[in-house]
Amino acid sequence: MPLPENREALVIGHIWLVKSIARKICKIFECIELFEDLTQEGTIGLIKAVDRYDSDAGVQLSTYAYRWIRGGMFNYLNKNSKYGMKISRLLRDRARKIVREHDDLMRKLGRKPTIEEIAKASGLKNKEVEEGLDLLAMSPVDLADLGEGGEGSFEPTNQGLSPEESTIRRGQIEDVLAVLRQFAPDRRRALMLRYCEDLSNRETAEKMGKTEGAVKLLVHRALEDLRKIFGSSPAGENPKKDSGNRNDGGNIDVGI
Amino acid sequence: MSEFNDIERRLKETVLIHLSEDELGAYHDNAAHEADRCRMENHLARCLICSRKLQMMQDVLQSQGESVNDQDIARVKALLDSQRAVATVVSSIIVAFNVWVKKRSIHPGMRARFSTAKVEDGQMEDGSVRWRYVEKESGERIVRFASHRVELEGLKIMVKAGQLSKTVVLKPVTQGQLGAEVTFTSQESEKIPAEALLSIDVLTEARDQPEV
Questions:
Q1: How many CB atoms lie within 10 A of CB A103?
Q2: Residue B26 to residue B52: CA distance in whole angstroms
Q3: What is the pLDDT along chain A (256 residues), one digit of tens a residue?
């Protein structure tokens, strides 16, 4: 926690941020009469952010405080009988629907869906989609936490999966992502360039300033470790067939 | 070998996972590791929702146009002063309880043996928080807290007796009065050893993440 005199200066130095967020939220919810109350709640959020901020984490105080301030304001709005119900309804119904249709389209099209495309798929008006997107953009809630584990985010209706199957599938992908985060940066980057950016081994090598052979080895070992962790194997291949070939005695080496 | 095996499919689909608030913040401040930026950039390129979240963040953080007036500064000072007042009261409660225990020559520190008396009162030196310990004939044991300091609303107090512990929050009971009560039922009291100590702790920071 900063010294009292620094604490006060830091809070006063970031009041502009509180007011700026309060202004945006008032615009979204058309509740300008709540500006003062939101500023008060946002200031409490800002004080908490100042007290908990760790500059070693790499983000600036204003970025860190951005979420705390919105959190304070949304807590306040949630407790307000009029706006609380509105937020709850919008997040539960409209926003979730938008996320579901958006994610289906993103998967199918491989690009950003347009507002018109989301509106058509969801049966909402363009203006309603706009409002829902504004709410999602300002909400401090992670999209993955948007009720029922964010179901709908991975509901590929065109692939014949039930909601349960799509939730499992989403969980599988998140598990892979969680393991990837523990991989050494080089391994993680090689995999991401190969599979997220769809680059070839040669292109990945060029981007990483490595030889093609080094990239092949990084990717091969990383995939091998992922298969060991998740018990998955390429079609027709016995996952245990090559265990022990590694000089690490088959231990899972996440390359940390 | 299948060209698109399960792990490879999952790897490709990581790009569809939405960015968390922390990831968006790190991306905005250029604090994300290059290995993670690759996935973030690819996701942002195809996700309208996350790119709008990032755009909103950029708009707000780069605005800095809102002027700060005397009213804003007064609000900050008042909030910080009230927090300091709560912190002072919290430490006073602990000191006062300590004094109360010592006066009764029971035990040093923050702990006291359950009294054999049926009713025992204690309070802070300035009287802003009072408590009463009551042992009923049925064996039920009750600790009641009361305060006239409305700024202490929400103060969490934990009462521990042997292995049992209960937490209460000071809440308004009448206008200008806060109160809270901890009850150990007669069945619970039977589980409290005769030599058990009663302790009262004040919990101030219950939340660590912004909640919505």
A1: 25
A2: 16
A3: 666 668 888 999 899 999 999 999 888 888 888 899 999 999 999 998 998 888 777 889 999 999 999 998 988 888 877 777 777 777 667 888 898 899 889 988 989 999 999 999 999 999 989 988 988 898 887 776 654 434 333 222 334 455 566 667 677 787 888 888 888 888 888 998 898 888 899 999 998 999 999 999 999 998 888 888 887 544 333 333 333 333 333 333 333 2
Instruction: Answer yes or no: pTM beyond 0.90.
Output: no
Range of the domain at B17: 6-60
Q: Within this chain, do residues B126 and B167 fall inside the same structural domain, yes or no?
A: yes
B74: contact with A, CB 8 A cutoff: no
Q: Which two tokens stand for residue A191?
A: 């995999």
Distance from CA of A148 to the nearest CA of B (A): 15
Place of tokens 């509901």: A155
Q: Which residues of chain A have a CB within 8 Å of the CB of B12? A: 195-196, 198
Tokens 């979730």, residue?
A: A96
Give the closest-approach CA distance of B137 to chain A in angstroms.
Answer: 42
What is the phi-psi region of residue A145: left when phi exceeds 0, alpha when psi lies from -120 to 50, beta otherwise? alpha
CA–CA dist B84, B90 (Å, integer): 10
ipTM of this predicted structure: 0.78
B14/A137 touch (CB, cutoff 8 Å), yes or no: no
In this structure, which CATH number among 3.90.1150.10, 1.10.1740.10, 1.25.40.530, 3.30.470.20 belongs to the domain A4-79? 1.10.1740.10
